[in-house]
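Exercise 7b. Backbone tokens:
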């Protein structure tokens, strides 16, 4: 697991009257070591979005959450799955139409729409978290062994950058 700054409050959802709490470490254990940056994106998206969806300050209902995103990375998918079960239940959609090309290659895919109980929020990555080098390597149609090795160095750096910042500094949120 990548080294990440200090403890972060867990993500909270409700299922059948029970509040469930998930830490970044939980998400990493579920996903494995492959895409720590994607897992960190999932954590920050949910950290930012879940409180905006819960009614009266209560955590939202896990099995009622829907997620649409332009980002199909496995770390983000797995992190969202652990907390919401949206992938298993068919409530997770990768929708390329959500891309925002005007934001540039570092941000265009990092658009997430969360909804629950009649509430919805759209989250868009802010500048400065995904570097041009990371985006060029991660989203390249093909990479050679050297590029793969470099990307493996950059992945935990991205995770640390994301986890070291407050969720509201990582993702802009618009209540829909």
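Sequence design result:
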């Amino acid at each position: 697991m990548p080294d990440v700054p200090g403890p972060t409050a867990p993500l909270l959802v409700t299922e059948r009257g029970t509040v469930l709490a998930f830490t970044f470490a939980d998400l990493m254990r579920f996903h494995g070591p492959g895409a720590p940056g994607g897992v960190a994106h999932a954590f920050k998206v949910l950290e930012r979005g879940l409180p905006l969806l819960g009614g009266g300050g209560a955590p939202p209902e896990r099995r009622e959450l829907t997620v649409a995103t332009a980002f199909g990375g496995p770390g983000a998918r797995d992190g969202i799955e652990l907390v919401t079960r949206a992938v298993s239940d068919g409530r997770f959609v990768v929708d390329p139409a959500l891309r925002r090309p005007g934001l540039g290659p570092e941000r265009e895919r990092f658009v997430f729409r969360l909804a629950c109980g009649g509430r919805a929020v759209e989250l868009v990555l802010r500048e400065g978290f995904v570097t041009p080098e990371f985006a060029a390597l991660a989203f390249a149609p093909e990479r050679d062994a050297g590029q793969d090795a470099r990307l493996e160095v950059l992945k935990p750096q991205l995770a640390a950058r994301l986890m070291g910042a407050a969720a509201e500094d990582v993702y802009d949120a618009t209540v829909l």
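Instructor comment: Residues 30 and 82 are 7 Å apart (CA to CA). The domain at 11-175 is CATH 3.30.1330.130 (60s Ribosomal Protein L30; Chain: A;).
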